[in-house]
Write a structure and sequence with these properties.
single chain; alpha/beta; FAD/NAD(P)-binding domain; D-Amino Acid Oxidase, Chain A, domain 2; 2 domains; seven-stranded mixed beta sheet; five-stranded parallel beta sheet; 13 helices; 17 strands; TetX_monooxygenase; FAD
């Protein structure tokens, strides 16, 4: 068995590592020219019921623990006036420790044999050759033929069309991302509002979410439920003007909160949220499958990276458990993956539906109650 993986994100790399643990060779093809070609995003909370299960399967738990940022599991919910409504401290016993995404990716890369990842290989398409074999084409004209192909290439997967004609659709919401550096000294009011971990200030059609990352960096995601045309009218090549326009949507909010938008040390970055249909699935196609966002893209809900890693781990374990029976392994993996991802999508949809018709000042209370219910159910299970 030899596995070809398209995409060197967390899902694809977890799969490659679990395969390596079980003596199964794999090659990963990645469009980025190097591991450090771009920023890998902010912090991730890796949950004990999915993401950490994948880390265990990859036999990297000791390395993972070394990456954990102490205290970052702390969470607080504020109202738009800056009043703390709910606070959960990080006492070291929670099941969702925070790590930097880039560090987690580096951990997985370092655990693979040299040469496993082929950098600078942008996939432009793939086609079936019959008998479960596929040909993958790269920009520049190169190709590779594989007997087992896994698409781990995210929202705009080039492998997904082999299985389904589903494509991502705009979810009606976008994030505007900002960073504040040296926040404790340069932005003390905003730093105090965020606290030692994560901050959520929800409203009916907008919100401010922030994390304290390594050091005293504040990473903010400003959520706005608006049509794409609203964002198209903003000129993000003029950072100050774009930030001011976004901040205007939060008129009347506490200044230490709007400072997370207006005082950014980087240009604001627009990130529209897109999704595949909840419960998206496909009929079994010999020799190919998907993991992570390529399979079940959904709005940001804290589960995306965790699900991608668990997908990679479970696919790797299924292939190891069925040597010489690839189709049995793929069917077993998909049979578990489809309902698991659909359940997470439905839970996210339920959270959204909770806010329909809720008065703006009541939104934080409704979300706090829902969060308590969800975390209690997870801990009991």
């Amino acid at each position: 068995m030899h596995v070809t993986i398209v995409g060197a994100g967390l899902g694809g790399l977890t799969l490659a590592r679990v395969l390596h643990v079980h003596g199964i060779p794999a090659e990963v093809y990645e469009a980025e020219p190097s591991p450090t070609a771009r920023s890998q995003g902010g912090m991730l909370d890796i949950h004990d019921y999915n993401g950490q299960v994948a880390v265990e399967a990859a036999e990297l738990m000791e390395e993972f623990r070394a990456l954990i940022l102490p205290g970052r599991q702390a969470m607080r919910v504020l109202d738009r006036h800056g009043t703390v409504l709910f606070e959960e401290p990080d006492d070291g016993t929670g099941g969702r420790p925070e790590v930097q995404r880039a560090d987690l990716r580096r951990m997985l890369l370092d655990a693979l044999p040299d040469g496993t990842v082929h950098w600078g290989h942008k996939v432009t398409g793939a086609r079936a050759l019959g008998d479960g074999r596929h040909e993958v084409t790269f920009a520049g004209g190169g190709t590779v033929v594989t007997g087992l192909l896994v698409g781990a290439d995210g929202a705009w997967s080039r492998i997904r069309p082999l299985l389904t004609d589903a494509t991502p659709a705009y979810a009606g919401e976008a994030f505007v991302e900002t960073y504040l550096y040296d926040a404790d000294t340069r932005h003390p009011a905003a730093a105090k509002a965020v606290g030692g971990g994560s901050l959520m200030v929800p409203s009916a059609d907008k919100g401010i979410h922030a994390h304290r990352e390594s050091g005293d960096t504040l990473h903010t995601y400003v959520s706005l439920i608006r049509p794409l045309e609203w964002f198209d009218a903003l000129d993000f090549t003029e950072p100050a003007a774009a930030a001011a326009r976004v901040a205007a949507e939060f008129d009347g909010w506490a200044p230490e909160l709007t400072a997370l938008i207006t005082d950014g040390d980087t240009a604001p970055v627009l990130r529209p949220l897109r999704t595949l249909p909840i419960g998206h699935r496909w009929a079994r196609v010999p020799g190919v499958t998907l993991v992570g966002d390529a399979a079940h893209l959904m709005p940001a809900n804290g589960e995306g990276a965790n699900l991608a890693m668990l997908d990679g781990a479970e696919l790797g374990l299924a292939l190891a458990a069925h040597p010489g029976a690839v189709e049995t392994a793929l069917a077993e993996y998909e049979e578990a993956m489809f309902p698991r991802s659909a359940k997470v999508g439905q839970e996210g949809k339920r959270f959204d539906e909770l806010l329909v018709g809720v008065a703006e000042d009541d939104v934080p209370r409704v979300l706090i109650d829902a969060f308590r219910e969800f975390t209690g159910a997870v801990r009991e299970s």
